[in-house]
Amino acid sequence: MSLMTKILSASTAMALAAGAAFADGHSAGPAIIYDLGGKFDKSFNESAYNGAQRWADENGGEFAEFEITSDAQREQAIRRFAEDGNSPIVMAGFSWATALETAAPDYPDTDFVVIDVSWIDMPNVRAVGFK
Question: Residue 117 sits in a domain of what CATH number?
């Protein structure tokens, strides 16, 4: 496992832990939406999955998950999880930026985490970028 994938895995675990700490009012738990390539892509998605699974194992928690198969599903997936009460909703990769910037304002009480993006500045979005 490369250093970048280890960092991503740890970032996902921390994002779920941090989000779960302030998501007490939500009926559903955290969610992770995988990018194109699927959760076992031997790259960012799999690292994000490993981090989410680590969080679940260490905290006895559960998380919802979804693997998109086309770019057209990005915003739809974000909205579906937000409407179901999931929080935080975690996504890995800069490809999520546009859909997240569009959907997040409609769900001010939902916390979102996007990894590998540093330029989004919204009150309910934690953008985690790498130097």
Answer: 3.40.50.2300
